[in-house]
Automatic annotation (TrEMBL):
<feature type="binding site">
    <location>
        <position position="323"/>
    </location>
    <ligand>
        <name>phosphoenolpyruvate</name>
    </ligand>
</feature>
<feature type="binding site">
    <location>
        <position position="28"/>
    </location>
    <ligand>
        <name>3-phosphoshikimate</name>
    </ligand>
</feature>
<feature type="active site" description="Proton acceptor">
    <location>
        <position position="292"/>
    </location>
</feature>
<comment type="subunit">
    <text>Monomer.</text>
</comment>
<feature type="binding site">
    <location>
        <position position="145"/>
    </location>
    <ligand>
        <name>3-phosphoshikimate</name>
    </ligand>
</feature>
<dbReference type="InterPro" id="IPR036968">
    <property type="entry name" value="Enolpyruvate_Tfrase_sf"/>
</dbReference>
<dbReference type="GO" id="GO:0005737">
    <property type="term" value="C:cytoplasm"/>
</dbReference>
<feature type="binding site">
    <location>
        <position position="24"/>
    </location>
    <ligand>
        <name>3-phosphoshikimate</name>
    </ligand>
</feature>
<feature type="binding site">
    <location>
        <position position="147"/>
    </location>
    <ligand>
        <name>phosphoenolpyruvate</name>
    </ligand>
</feature>
<dbReference type="InterPro" id="IPR023193">
    <property type="entry name" value="EPSP_synthase_CS"/>
</dbReference>
<dbReference type="Pfam" id="PF00275">
    <property type="entry name" value="EPSP_synthase"/>
</dbReference>
<feature type="binding site">
    <location>
        <position position="390"/>
    </location>
    <ligand>
        <name>phosphoenolpyruvate</name>
    </ligand>
</feature>
<dbReference type="GO" id="GO:0009073">
    <property type="term" value="P:aromatic amino acid family biosynthetic process"/>
</dbReference>
<feature type="binding site">
    <location>
        <position position="23"/>
    </location>
    <ligand>
        <name>phosphoenolpyruvate</name>
    </ligand>
</feature>
<feature type="binding site">
    <location>
        <position position="366"/>
    </location>
    <ligand>
        <name>phosphoenolpyruvate</name>
    </ligand>
</feature>
<feature type="binding site">
    <location>
        <position position="147"/>
    </location>
    <ligand>
        <name>3-phosphoshikimate</name>
    </ligand>
</feature>
<feature type="binding site">
    <location>
        <position position="23"/>
    </location>
    <ligand>
        <name>3-phosphoshikimate</name>
    </ligand>
</feature>
Amino acid sequence: MKLHLSQPVSNHINSTIRITGSKSESNRILLLKALYPNVSIENTSNSDDAQVMEKGLKISNGVVDIHHAGTAMRFLTAYFATQEGKEVVLTGSQRMTERPIGVLVEALRSLGAEITYVNNEGFPPLKITGKKITQSKVSLPADISSQYISALLLNASSLENGLELELVGKITSVPYIKMTLALLSQLQIENTFEGNTIKVYPKKDVKANTLVVESDWSSASYFYSSIALADLGSQIILSSYKENSLQGDSVLSEIYKSFGVETIFNENKVVLKKISTPKLNKLVWDLANAPDIAQTIAVTCFGLGMGCYLTGLHTLKIKETDRLEALNTELTKLGAAISVTDKTLTIAPTMAINKDIAIDTYNDHRMAMAFAPLAFKTSLIINDAEVVSKSYPDFWTDMKTIGIGVV
Ligand SMILES: O=C(O)C1=C[C@@H](OP(=O)(O)O)[C@@H](O)[C@H](O)C1
Ligand SMILES: C=C(OP(=O)(O)O)C(=O)O
């Protein structure tokens, strides 16, 4: 599906949007609910990724296909490997078979798990035969993806002796690990994170508990970008959000101050307001803690004619696509002076934006969503626009609500 986006009749936004639950929190709680049936969940993400996770958890034998969902792939690998009596082949989309999983498989094997590679060493699909795991100590590299660590932690309390992880190297995407531990704590599952060591203690059952998922901050980023690119005085109210979020992407409220966007927390809502023109002509930010908002921020800077130097982007090459290359190609088409390395992205300030450019999305929901707010500056086309359903199925409806022409 190709969508033509046109500039709003007025660049002044005044809208209210309700976003569903964080896909990261949802996929963690869905797994915990499978381990502890008296856990319930509210405001679950309506994303494809949460749906494949929920479906996958119900299967005990045969093929489990998680499509493009990285968290489902990693979390379910550890789940099936530690569930005695289950035997599955865990697979996904073509891209998923190119996203590395060797670090997690090695860690699980060293704990006694039985996992074999169906095709290529180090990559899905995986054949997993669930085993009772009694070993409890493992060390693993922490600089490639935090999802391997969260996968082990989420299943740790169901193991006879719990788990002690020693993290080797510079730990990446740390807020996602802390989110995992915070959710365990909400279920009174004891855990500690000191230096490079994380311990999770065994727990047979938990008290009945309803975990309410905060709405998705990565999805909120597209509204931050829209407000930054819209007229002064524009406002969007988003729900349901809180100031003390478990999601690292809530750093958006800090970052977007540089673009003249103010964030006010009001009960369970967040009010975004464009209160001034950008204060800087170049944004410098390390995104190692919030990799999923890199595309949004790069496009906002370009749309405002600002430069940027974004670092900490080493995980972007193994996500839904190589996001650094994809940004380089698509922003160049729009007229940006951009350069990338394998962990940084630089854009030079420029005011010209090429009109009616067709943006390729590379099976990556965030490529489609990050470029959409540019419609506040110019008309553009988004190719394969249906990719947004991976995390945000209502995205195009919500873009229409804030005034963008979408046909
Ligand atoms: O644990 C999670 O829910 C996630 C962790 C991050 O991955 P990495 O740790 O691979 O950077 C992030 O990019 C992804 O969208 C969701
Ligand atoms: C990287 C992402 O997801 P995952 O790794 O779970 O596929 C994302 O949603 O931006």
